[in-house]
Amino acid sequence: MEGIWDLKADVVQEGDKLRDVSPIARKTIIDDKGYSHYIFNKQLFKNSSYKMPGDDFELFNMFLDGEDLIYPSDGDIPSDIVAVEARKVLNYIVACAENLSSSYYEDANIALKNGKNSLVRGAIKLHLGKYTTNEWRRKRFTASINFFMFQVGLLDHVLTQMDWVKNKETNNWEKSLQWFDTETSEIA
Q1: Which of 186, 78, 173 is nearest to 134 (CA)?
Q2: Could you tell me whether strands 186-187 and 180-181 are parallel, antiparallel, or unpaired per DSSP bridges?
Q3: Nearest-10 Cα torsion for 116, 163, 181, 141
Q4: What global pTM score does this model have?
Q5: Whether 112 contacts 97, CB under 8 Å
Q6: CA angle 59-41-44, nearest 5°?
Q7: How many Å apart are CA 117 and CA 124, to the nearest integer?
Q8: DSSP assignment of the chain, as one string?
Q9: Do 162 and 92 touch, CB atoms closer than 8 A?
Q10: 10-38 burial code (b ≥16 CB/10 A, e <16)
Q11: Whether 107 contacts 99, CB under 8 Å
Q12: What is the pLDDT averaged over residues 32-43?
């Protein structure tokens, strides 16, 4: 049964940095009635909008009230906001693939051969693919979009057209965003 829980969602692995949720094999036990009990290890993630209380009773009350369902996050920007930006980039690539006169027509069609959501990874892929609940999407934060495609010239062109700026120090594409934070009633 080892390996069946490889959902790549918790602990960052070496290599492609995907996440991995696996039971601790040596702690898996089968009770007298034949039920398997899996023990998992966890890694806590930073989430700026969630402060875990030190008091277990308070934490339990938050669980009952549905307030403790803040999901692991790797940034401070709501995933809804980031997903909108990812959709804009993906839709621009689709437009290039549909425009025969585009100089990126061939590259765009090659990039889209497995669908536009195949061009992103991580939390945004889950978000765009609707693999998650609205609750998860509402409470997830991130700081990046992981585009995965070999047509680098196409991606550079699209990001430039969409007002992204390449940071010369980090070699990453960046874009400044603003949104209304409903928790603080301020523009973030």
Answers
A1: 78
A2: antiparallel
A3: 40
A4: 0.62
A5: yes
A6: 50
A7: 9
A8: -TTTT----SEEPSSS--EE--B-GGG-EE-TTS-EE--B-------TT----S-HHHHHHHHHHTTT-PPP-SSSEEHHHHHHHHHHHHHHHHHHHH-TT-TTHHHHHHHTTT-GGGGEEHHHHHHHTT-S-HHHHHH-EES--EE--S-HHHHHHHHHHTT-EE-TTT--EE-----EETTTTEE-
A9: yes
A10: beeeeeeeebeebbeeeeeeeeeeeeeee
A11: no
A12: 72
CA contacts within 13 A on the Cβ side of 57:
0
pLDDT, one tens digit per residue, over 51-83 is 666 777 776 777 666 655 555 566 778 888 888
Q: Nearest CA to 16 among 158, 181, 146, 187?
A: 146
| Residue 48 scores a pLDDT above 90 | no
Side-chain half-sphere of 122: how many Cα atoms within 13 Å? Answer: 21
CA distance 90 to 94: 6
**Domain-wise residue ranges, the chain:** 1-43, 77-187
Distance of alpha carbon 104 from alpha carbon 87, whole angstroms: 18
List the structure tokens of 41. 């290890």
CA 135/CA 140 separation, integer angstroms? 9
Residue with tokens 């603003």: 178
